[in-house]
Amino acid sequence: MVTAIGFEGSANKLGIGVIRDGKVLANCRTTYITPPGEGFLPKETAQHHRQKVLSVLKQCLEEAGVSPSEIDVVCYTKGPGMGAPLSTVAVVAKTVAQLWNKPILGVNHCIGHIEMGRLITGAKNPTVLYVSGGNTQVIAYARKRYRIFGETIDIAVGNCLDRFARVIKISNDPSPGYNIEQLAKHGKKFVQLPYCVKGMDVSFSGILTYMEERTSNLLRSGFTPEDLCFSLQETVFAMLVETTERALAHCNSSEVLIVGGVGCNVRLQEMMGEMCKERGAKLFATDERFCIDNGIMIAHAGAEMFQAGVRMRWEDSGITQRYRTDEVETVWRVD
Amino acid sequence: MGDEVQPKEQLKINIEIPFPDKRTARIAYDVLRVDKEPKRSGVVKNLSVNETVLEAEFSALLARQLRVAINGFFDKLDLIAETIEAIGPPVSDSYSHY
């Protein structure tokens, strides 16, 4: 039986969670929300985490109702992500590990998403689409690693959506992507946008530039913000479904799992579901509690690693802004 | 670039931080020593712990570089102190999972 606490703070979400044997005991989160038209920057995001981290930690421990002595391992996000927020949260995780005299374990953020998705949905060996504000990857498991089959060659799909939300100045609360999704439901007219799949990889920066340059003209010529949100979503999600379908066919897999913040977009789930139906595959997705960055996914992935015997030397308990999904050997997976 | 005169000599600052006891001084040292200064910061940081005192030695060519590194150092130190205050005193006399 492993009880783990996880600290996540690689982007604008600060999350701390406690898990025991796959059972979520507490999952607390707070988000740094910027005014419309503005994104979040490393320094300000780190300050936000700095101000909130101890109150979130207290709340999490109260909710979980476990005493520190019952915790087996303290887990934190080692990377990838923004340096300053990562290191702020890591400082607290390390201090807590020392105070409680518990081992510390750095977890790859992407692995956290995948393992949490598998735990919640029960997917066994899925082809994974990991889509968020910082990452866009099509992943499949083979021989002890999560291998990247395709990814973005520039910005993440969530970054494209977030920045378009800034162009049309919609609210960042609860998240720009959520607000785009709601507007898109009322879109009627489709604007043809660049479609940018390059082999197994995708590209979003050109689409974003296209939108940035033309939005004011399009709005003047009779398109509504709703139409633009709709068109952007349809285009970028089609690209993601296309590459995921190819990976699915290549791996002869029968499961697709969507993880990451963009993964709770219901329209993306619908489109992916349709593709899966045509191929006789099963789609797995989770809701915002587990899709959007959270502490529990770090705790869970860390607990899996810990149980499989992974230990980290204290000297290695730093952070790294770049940390690829396929760098981690998945010793906890037996297949 | 160019408007800053590159002094030849390294600027140095030594800081001593007293702690109430050996164990907390050691915790602060352990937490802080893991984070290396960014490669392009131009700062060399040396940490050591002597009984209840945490000793930090910073050197760099430019005062600006030193300022950035020391601000970051104190931010983290402050966070460690607050964490100890919030979580309570260490449960053991030493850490057994290095």
UniProtKB/TrEMBL annotation, chain A:
One GO MF term attached to the UniProt entry: tRNA N(6)-L-threonylcarbamoyladenine synthase activity
CC per GO annotation: cytoplasm; EKC/KEOPS complex; nucleus
Residue ranges annotated for the Gcp-like domain, each copy included: 25-299
This protein's record includes keyword Acyltransferase: yes
TM helices/strands, residue ranges: none
Any one biological process term the GO annotation gives: tRNA threonylcarbamoyladenosine modification
Cellular localisation: Cytoplasm; Nucleus
Keywords per UniProt: Acyltransferase, Cytoplasm, Metal-binding, Nucleus, Transferase, tRNA processing
Cofactor list: a divalent metal cation
EC number: 2.3.1.234
Positions that bind a divalent metal cation: H109, H113, Y130, D293
HAMAP family xref list: Kae1
Family: Belongs to the KAE1 / TsaD family.
Name recorded for this polypeptide: N(6)-L-threonylcarbamoyladenine synthase
UniProt source species: Exocentrus adspersus
TrEMBL record, chain B:
Keywords tagged on the record: Cytoplasm, Nucleus, tRNA processing
Record localization: Cytoplasm; Nucleus
InterPro entries the record matches: CTAG/Pcc1
A Pfam family the protein falls into: Pcc1
GO cellular component: cytoplasm; EKC/KEOPS complex; nucleus
Protein name (database record): L antigen family member 3
Protein function: Component of the EKC/KEOPS complex that is required for the formation of a threonylcarbamoyl group on adenosine at position 37 (t(6)A37) in tRNAs that read codons beginning with adenine. The complex is probably involved in the transfer of the threonylcarbamoyl moiety of threonylcarbamoyl-AMP (TC-AMP) to the N6 group of A37. LAGE3 functions as a dimerization module for the complex.
GO BP terms: tRNA processing; tRNA threonylcarbamoyladenosine metabolic process
Domain of life per record: Eukaryota
Similarity field: Belongs to the CTAG/PCC1 family.
Taxonomic source organism: Exocentrus adspersus
